[in-house]
Structure formats: structure tokens, C-alpha cells
Amino acid sequence: MRFVEKFDLPTLAIYNTGVAHKRGEVWNTRALTPRENQILFEMARADFALVNDVAGNRDQQGMGYKFVSVTEPTPPLKDEVLFEKQRVVNAGYRKRSSSGEIVMAPYRVDNITCRYAYGSELVNPRNGVKHTLQPRSFRNDPWKVVNFDDTWQSSNLGAMTFTMTARTYTEYIYTPFDLGWDLHPKQFRDVFNGLRTIDHTLVTSALAGANEGKIDILTTLAEMPETISSVISGLRLVAKLSKDASLS
Asked: Does the predicted TM-score (pTM) go above 0.70?
């Protein structure tokens, strides 16, 4: 359990968004229209929404991050890992392969990792306090302006501020196992094994073709230019190395 100060996003409001400036004549100003204010408000809201549920420090709280004021140690949850190799020993493999036979073996590696993370729930909101905030992107690029149209632009984003109410919550931390999670790597492997279907007809056909020494002539011809080009490139490299060696 821990105590968290988090901003209530629906309470976001404009505090100061400045005025509109005429492009090319920034001293020429006028009040922002409702549409222009809404554009700036939506930009700020999108920024605050990204960090609304992310814990930060006191300074980052001024950009809308939540702040954990009291916490208990929460050791990382251990991964569950299954790694197994499954092989089939083929009798007389060396003799059969040396005679030209294509020997196939169903070799398989099972590698499954279950990674867990804590969940949390905020309860009992209290102590609502209004704060003046500045969106992260506004602070990071303070001289940026927004062009409303071909004539008017906003003030510098770094001069704009907004307000939002923060409340203190009690946050309960729980693990997937607290919620009844009872699946582990071996069970996932069983599921995958049930989905794995081997086309034995295709395997037998491919093996028979390989052992008979069949060649796909069309594919071989299609790949011939690339093969020749690769060989020529290799010969050119060898010639160049030889020439460089003789010059040195």
C-alpha cells in the first residue's frame, strides 16, 4: 500500500494562454477566439493525458505526473522461464548420411518466459488541491508558437499555464497471483503443442525428393545470374587485394 497524489484530468482548465499575435507584426495583438483557446487546450490535454498515470518527482508533478508521497518496498516479480531442447537420436546417422541419404530429425527448442508486473488500484480520494501546471512539451520548447491561420499565431507556449486539481489516494498494489492467475510456462507449452500440426505428407514428399536428388531447374536457372554475379564480385575483390599487395 502507498499514498499517491494524482491529478484529476477532467478538472483541467486554462489559466493563461496569452493573446493572438499577427504574423510578421507580433506587436499587433488581439484576444484569442474560443476556437483558438480550444486548440491550445487540446494540445495541453493530450500532453497531460500521457503522464497522468506515470509516477514522477516533485518537480515533474508540475507537468502533470502523479507523485508517490509514501511507499512500501515492492520487490520485482520473478520471471518464470522454461527452456528445453528435445532431440530424436537417429540410429546409424553417420552411415546413412555418408551414403547420401537425407536424414531428418524432429529437433525442437521450447523457450517460454512469463514476465509479471504489479497492478494497482487507487481508492479513497481526498484533499483536492488546485495546482498551476505547464505541459511537458510547452516547457521543453518554450519559444514555439502555434499558427492558427495565415494571419494569426499564438504567444510562446512557454508562457502558457493551466490548472488542475490533485487528490491524494490510497493505492493498493497487487500481483497477478493475488487475482487468481494460475498459468505457467508448461501449461502454455501444452497449448502450443496442441496447435502445432505437422503436415506429414509434405515432409515425406520433400524427403523423398531430396533422397532422389531432384533439382528444381526453374529455380536454379532463375538464381543463376545472382550466383554468377556473386562469384565475379568475389574474384574482383581477390584481384584488387592481390594488386594492392603487389603495390605495397
From this structure: no
